[in-house]
Design brief:
Layout (H helix, E strand, L loop, with lengths): L1 E10 L2 E10 L2 E11 L6 H4 L1 H6 L6 H29 L2 E10 L8 H5 L2 H22 L3 E6 L3 H9 L3 H15 L5 H15 L1
Parallel strand pairs: 1-4, 4-5
Antiparallel strand pairs: 1-2, 2-3
Helix pairs in contact: 3-5, 6-7, 6-8, 7-8
């Protein structure tokens, strides 16, 4: 059975997911989805740290923990659903790839809530962490990489120039039809790298 990988590019409250396998050395898209990582897709839940900053200090940790747990559970469900779809296409889900931001460690909650820039960072990290957690709980190998390093990692893993890798991923959209967004292209490239690691 051919192996497949999921690539994720996460935003606040949602993620792009692209599943790929390889035919020869070239990627084939098995699935693409935009997944919500919150049950109620509203600003309050998509931006949990922004919401927590407006709450009484004693309520903020409980709210953030609730959103984090919900995001983890939704991510697990999404991975299970993708694995089932992939299996119906004759492939086995073997790995995940996650694009990360700068990777700066976050300070304690009070310091996060005191800084608007940190609040933005923390919102994104909460949902990226949900994907990492879900991948681990589903016992899938995870390749996490900073988004700004994706093309150089792809060049090395795929043994091709970065512009060629980018063109090959962009061309996948022609067979799928629109939309084939930047989120999907980057998630697909990350999944391709994960399959070659």
């Amino acid at each position: 059975m051919k192996k497949a990988a999921l690539g994720f590019r996460v935003h606040s409250g949602w993620t792009s997911l692209v599943a790929i396998s390889l035919e020869g050395n070239l990627p084939v898209v098995l699935a693409r989805r935009r997944l919500h990582l919150v049950e109620t897709f509203s600003y309050s839940f998509r931006q949990p740290y922004h919401t927590a900053a407006k709450m009484p200090a004693e309520d903020a940790p409980r709210f953030i923990d609730k959103v984090r747990q919900e995001a983890r559970e939704l991510a697990i469900r999404a991975i299970h659903a993708a694995a089932a779809d992939i299996q119906q296409q004759g492939c086995k889900l073997a790995a995940c790839a996650l694009l990360q931001a700068s990777g700066r460690p976050l300070p304690e909650l009070a310091k996060i809530l005191a800084s608007h820039a940190m609040i933005h960072t923390a919102d994104g990290e909460l949902f990226r962490e949900a994907i990492l957690n879900a991948s681990s709980r589903c016992k899938l190998e995870m390749t996490a990489m900073r988004e700004r390093e994706l093309l150089s990692r792809a060049s090395s893993a795929l043994n091709m120039r970065p512009n060629i890798a980018a063109k090959r991923v962009a061309a996948l959209g022609k067979t799928l039809g629109p939309p084939w967004s930047q989120d999907e292209k980057l998630a697909a490239l990350a999944a391709w790298v994960a399959l070659r690691m």
